[in-house]
């Protein structure tokens, strides 16, 4: 599954994980690098490297905060915003493949179990 997922993302010139950063920015453009670390649960060097790569692809750019020049905010470019639909389609295809052959009532049970597991680890 992961290889299939990675292959589909590669068609968009993305790697696994970069789609999650873009997703965060689609929801909340203009966040700081520290906020990205918190929201994606990644270490600062990981975020820095990912941003550098996405900048080189022309998908994001960093800009100093207007009120605090020590802080950089991350914004999507037009090209980065245009990837929303293709990436979402990949996510939907992966979800459909994962749930193939699972009955609707089984999906509800699976969802309930996964929610419980998530609560258990908090």
TrEMBL record:
<protein>
    <submittedName>
        <fullName>MarR family transcriptional regulator</fullName>
    </submittedName>
</protein>
<keyword id="KW-0804">Transcription</keyword>
<dbReference type="GO" id="GO:0003700">
    <property type="term" value="F:DNA-binding transcription factor activity"/>
</dbReference>
<keyword id="KW-0238">DNA-binding</keyword>
<dbReference type="GO" id="GO:0003677">
    <property type="term" value="F:DNA binding"/>
</dbReference>
<dbReference type="InterPro" id="IPR036390">
    <property type="entry name" value="WH_DNA-bd_sf"/>
</dbReference>
<dbReference type="InterPro" id="IPR000835">
    <property type="entry name" value="HTH_MarR-typ"/>
</dbReference>
<dbReference type="InterPro" id="IPR036388">
    <property type="entry name" value="WH-like_DNA-bd_sf"/>
</dbReference>
<keyword id="KW-0805">Transcription regulation</keyword>
<dbReference type="InterPro" id="IPR023187">
    <property type="entry name" value="Tscrpt_reg_MarR-type_CS"/>
</dbReference>
<dbReference type="Pfam" id="PF01047">
    <property type="entry name" value="MarR"/>
</dbReference>
<feature type="domain" description="HTH marR-type">
    <location>
        <begin position="1"/>
        <end position="119"/>
    </location>
</feature>
